[in-house]
């Protein structure tokens, strides 16, 4: 068989794997090894010892085998074949290919070995040096990695490029933030101190969550830098301060940038983010308005601005910006949803319905689908809303969507206290999409109201197994155990955990007060329930407080709260039940 036929047969072998091997690597191995004579018909024939007869054919075979194993996803075998060639062959392309395979498959020690060979063959290769530096970093050989990075920086600087900044960007892209930070600390020792070095150090410390060290590195820099570098330093400093829960200082750091006309959009958006986190939505809207005027065709900014105005209940301001958002094909649905919210604010519910029905896709589609039956119920009664939902269920073959509409209907029924029907719908939804957390939570509520406590607890526990810090579930389960069982210590643990995660939640404070009542700690119960009632005159909280006050003999105060609440909520079942208890306590006293 001649050489052409031999190559063709090997090519056919690679075609079976549907991808071609890198010919540049293959032929580079051949060329480096020397001229090929096609007169030898035994080029690929094995000797009696099982080894290929000459160095050239051995290299050729190993490159081919390496590629074919790679195509089959067996990187371990692929690398073994490539290593046999790379450590003998003098072409850097072979060593590069072996380095890539070893690095991709996580065989770092072998990758380091072959990357060193690649760099030995091609000392000017920045790519080889980068590979070696990152591989050493991942093996926690920080000093050796830093040395390679410094050599790369020197090469970059000679080319007229910003070596320090490029090294910083490269390390910032490394997923193992802690290792990148430790390596850069070693790299910094090899380079004279400078503001740029400190800026990168602070950035990497921030990514590695060493916030105090990041702050120490960044604090002196704004005074040493100018222009965008100064802005970058201030942005980073504000992020660090926010992570350290020093929000006021974070805002103060960015505040001067807001006075400058040259402040970049990135800085303005970061300021908006901090303002929103600080619940200063009015100030955030002012900054977004500035950005919107600068970029009227940036629909992302327009969308965020309208959303802020809606949150602030400044509906006329929101509506003023809607026509522009409607021009965006991407945000058509969002715009219609926003318009529907504005109509709802004016109690123009039929117009709101019409707008919600125009939301056919996008990020607010599910929200619109949830609002439509709610508005139908308000405008035309619960039965019409249920009929609309039934049509939605019957018109789709997608089980996930069926389950969603069944859950919406069940939620409406829970609000109306039609618990048996709600439970039936939730069981059907669970059969379509088993173990969905929201369905299991809603079902637990229905089961609790139907006094099926053991089943309710199973569903609540399922949710907590998936999301151990789910505050609503912790509180609901704790309250249920306090109300319907004698497992008060368990209830206390659950409610305390919920309160630690959300300390100002009045419903959790109410649960704690009710638990104290069940434990016989009447004074503690009164304190917590009065605290909750003062912040939220919810009928359930009021009924608990009335019962505690009646139990203590404070009948005048209990009656005053009852009269105030029954005027606001004349049909509330809990208030009706507590009325009887007031009478009973008065008779007993």
Q: Short summary of the structure?
A:
This protein has 589 residues and is mostly helical.
Description:
The chain is mainly α. The chain contains 33 helices and no strands. It has helices at residues 3-15, 23-33, 55-71, 75-86, 92-104, 108-121, 126-138, 142-158, 163-172, 177-188, 195-207, 211-218, 227-243, 247-254, 265-277, 281-294, 299-311, 315-325, 332-345, 349-357, 365-380, 382-395, 399-415, 419-432, 437-449, 453-466, 471-484, 488-501, 506-518, 522-535, 539-552, 555-568, 573-588. The radius of gyration is 35 Å and the shape is elongated.
Helices and strands in order, then pairings?
Layout (H helix, E strand, L loop, with lengths): L2 H13 L7 H11 L21 H17 L3 H12 L5 H13 L3 H14 L4 H13 L3 H17 L4 H10 L4 H12 L6 H13 L3 H8 L8 H17 L3 H8 L10 H13 L3 H14 L4 H13 L3 H11 L6 H14 L3 H9 L7 H16 L1 H14 L3 H17 L3 H14 L4 H13 L3 H14 L4 H14 L3 H14 L4 H13 L3 H14 L3 H14 L2 H14 L4 H16 L1
Quick tags:
589 residues; mainly alpha; 0% strand; elongated
Let me know the largest β-sheet: none
**Secondary structural class:** mainly alpha
Q: How many strands in all? A: 0
Number of helices: 33
Give the rounded overall mean pLDDT.
Answer: 86
């Amino acid at each position: 068989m001649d050489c052409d036929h031999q190559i063709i047969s090997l090519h056919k072998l690679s075609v079976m794997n549907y991808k071609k091997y890198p010919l540049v690597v293959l032929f580079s191995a051949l060329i480096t090894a020397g001229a090929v004579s096609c007169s030898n018909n035994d080029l690929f024939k094995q000797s009696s010892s099982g080894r290929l007869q000459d160095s050239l054919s051995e290299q050729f075979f190993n490159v081919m085998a390496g590629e074919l194993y790679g195509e089959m996803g067996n990187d371990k075998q692929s690398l073994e074949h490539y290593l046999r060639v790379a450590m003998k062959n003098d072409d850097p392309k072979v060593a590069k290919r072996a380095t890539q395979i070893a690095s991709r498959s996580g065989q770092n020690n072998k990758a380091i070995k072959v990357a060193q060979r690649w760099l030995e063959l091609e000392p000017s290769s920045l790519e080889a040096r980068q590979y070696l530096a990152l591989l050493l970093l991942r093996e926690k050989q920080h000093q050796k990695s830093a040395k390679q990075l410094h050599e790369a920086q020197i090469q970059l600087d000679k080319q007229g490029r910003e070596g320090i900044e490029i090294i910083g960007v490269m390390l910032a892209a490394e997923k193992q933030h802690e290792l990148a930070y430790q390596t850069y600390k070693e790299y910094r020792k090899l380079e004279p101190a400078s503001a740029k070095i400190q800026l990168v150090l602070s950035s990497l410390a921030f990514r590695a969550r060493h916030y105090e060290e990041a702050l120490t590195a960044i604090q002196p820099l704004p005074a040493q830098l100018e222009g965008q570098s100064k802005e970058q330093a201030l942005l980073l400093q504000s992020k660090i301060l926010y992570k350290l829960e020093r929000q006021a200082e974070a805002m103060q750091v960015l505040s001067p940038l807001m006075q400058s006309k040259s402040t970049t959009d990135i800085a303005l958006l970061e300021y908006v983010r901090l303002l929103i986190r600080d619940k200063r939505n009015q100030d955030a809207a002012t900054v977004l308005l500035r950005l919107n005027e600068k970029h009227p065709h940036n629909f992302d900014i327009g969308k965020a601005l309208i959303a802020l105005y809606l949150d602030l209940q400044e509906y006329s301001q929101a509506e003023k910006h809607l026509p522009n958002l409607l021009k965006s094909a991407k945000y058509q649905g969002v715009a219609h949803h926003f318009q529907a919210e504005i109509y709802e604010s004016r109690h123009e519910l039929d117009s709101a319905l019409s707008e919600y029905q125009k939301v056919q896709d996008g990020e607010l589609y599910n929200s619109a689908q949830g609002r439509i039956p709610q508005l139908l119920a308000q405008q035309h009664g619960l039965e019409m809303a249920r009929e609309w939902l039934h049509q939605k269920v019957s018109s789709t073959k997608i089980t996930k969507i069926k389950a969603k509409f069944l859950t919406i209907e069940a939620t409406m029924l829970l609000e109306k206290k039609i618990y048996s029907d709600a439970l039936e719908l939730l069981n059907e939804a669970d059969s379509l999409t088993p173990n969905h957390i929201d369905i299991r939570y809603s079902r637990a509520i229905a089961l609790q109201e139907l006094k099926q406590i053991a089943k309710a607890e199973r569903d609540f526990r399922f949710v907590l197994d998936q999301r151990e810090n789910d505050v609503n579930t912790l509180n609901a389960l704790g309250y249920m155990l306090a109300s319907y069982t004698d497992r008060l210590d368990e209830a206390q643990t659950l409610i305390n955990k919920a309160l630690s995660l959300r300390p100002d939640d009045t419903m959790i404070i109410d649960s704690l007060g009710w638990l104290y009542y069940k434990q016989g700690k009447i004074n503690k119960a009164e304190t917590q329930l009065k605290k909750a009632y003062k912040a939220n005159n919810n009928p359930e909280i009021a009924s608990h407080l009335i019962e505690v006050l009646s139990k203590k003999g404070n009948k005048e105060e209990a009656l005053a709260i009852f009269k105030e609440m029954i005027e606001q909520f004349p049909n509330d079942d809990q208030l009706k039940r507590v009325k009887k208890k007031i009478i009973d306590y008065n008779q007993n006293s």
